[in-house]
Structure formats: C-alpha cells, structure tokens
Design goal:
The chain is mainly alpha-helical. The chain folds into two domains: 120 residues; 93 residues, no CATH class. Helices cover 80% and strands 0% of the residues. Helix 3 runs antiparallel to helix 4 and helix 6 crosses helix 8. The chain starts with 9 loop residues before the first helix and ends with a helix.
C-alpha cells in the first residue's frame, strides 16, 4: 500500500485501517460459509456469520471506492475502473444474497452467495495470479514494476474477479444440466485451475509473505 499511513490524513488513515481489518472477516468468514456441515448443524452461526460477512463485504467495498477515487492508490485509470467494478459487483451480490436469504429462498440465495464469495475474493485471486504470472515469466512482464501500470496489470485487475465468476457460472450450468462428458471436462478444468492456484499460493507465500513476517 503506497498510500498506507499518511501523517495528518485522519480520515484516510481510518479508512485504510478499516479496509485491512475488515479483510480479516472476509478472508476467514467467507470460507466458513461454504462448509456444509456448519450450514446443517450450526444453522444459527451460519446465519449470523453470513450477515456479518454481507455487511463487511458491503462496507469494505464502499471504503475501497473511497481509497481509490479520493485518497489515491497505485495503478492507472483502467485499473481503478476495474477495482470500482469489483466493488459494485460485491455490493450488488451482497444485497441480492441477503434479499433471497430473508424469505428463505435458499436455492437462489446459495447461487448469489457463491457469486459474492468469488467477487469478494478478487484481491486474493489477484495476488495469487499476479505472482504466478511473475514466476512463469521469470520476472515482471506486461507492466512497469515501479508504477504498477501496464496491460497485464489492467487486464488482470478485471480478470481477478471476472475469471473466477465465469468459472463458477460454467460450473453451475454443467452441474445442473450437462451430462457425464461435460462434467468430466469441468472437473479437469477445475483441477488445472486448482493446481495453478496452489502454485501461485506457494510463490507469493515464499517470495512475498514469509519474508515480511
């Protein structure tokens, strides 16, 4: 965060702190909602954790918009547009997931909750995919490492949530309508993406996170 703590910028510093602290709830609370045993055996916890997750996702997106357009952040205009679209999609999916959960329309709610999880995890996908790209290219390619601007950065700023969302939509369609061959092909795609994500997690952990602990 090139604009993390700025002396004298009380509002901006509070916004940055909120953004980081709320990210913990997104990172921990989201995956918990996907565990079927918790949904079935600890329904009250699932319901309240979901409400906290939705509220947090909505709040962190609003704070993120403030940080991008008012406080300023790294990247160019195209990347700011991509980040803003991500925030809007998070708020939209959060509102829709809650709307269908309240009247207990759970079949629709689950689909919207999965979409919310995907778009809310965009920052995670960005870092994993970004460092996987650097690893595969043996260095920064398609962007300036000093200004953080370039075609790859802009493209991946959109891809960080549109790609996972597209894979989810394809998975849901195959699961509900397709036959065995399509399901096998979908499983193969998910396997390849899982291996790629695992490699990205390893690279960013070893090169970025562990050295800074």
């Amino acid at each position: 965060m090139p604009h993390g703590y700025i002396p004298g910028d009380t509002v901006g510093n509070v916004a940055a702190a909120m953004h980081l602290l709320l990210a913990v709830i997104i990172t921990v609370g989201g995956p918990i909602q996907l565990i079927s045993q918790i949904r079935e055996r600890a329904w009250t916890f699932h319901r309240w954790n979901g409400r906290v997750y939705v509220l947090t996702a909505f709040t962190i997106s609003a704070v993120g918009l403030y940080m991008v357009w008012v406080r300023g952040t790294a990247g160019g205009f195209g990347q700011h547009i991509a980040t803003s679209l991500n925030a809007v999609l998070i708020m939209l999916c959060a509102a829709m997931a809650l709307r269908y959960a309240l009247p207990r329309k759970f079949s629709v709610h689950r689909r919207l909750a999965l979409r919310l999880f995907m778009v809310a995890s965009g920052v995670w996908f960005f870092r994993v995919g970004f460092w996987l790209w650097i690893f595969l290219n043996n260095g920064p390619v398609g962007f300036n490492p000093k200004t953080f601007q370039g075609p790859f950065r802009t493209l991946w700023n959109f891809g960080q949530y549109l790609l996972p969302l597209s894979v989810l939509e394809l998975y849901l369609r195959v699961r509900d309508r397709a036959g065995a061959p399509s399901r096998i092909a979908m499983a193969a795609v998910l396997l390849v993406l899982t291996v790629a994500m695992g490699l990205g997690i390893y690279v960013v952990t070893v090169r970025r996170w562990l050295p800074r602990i």
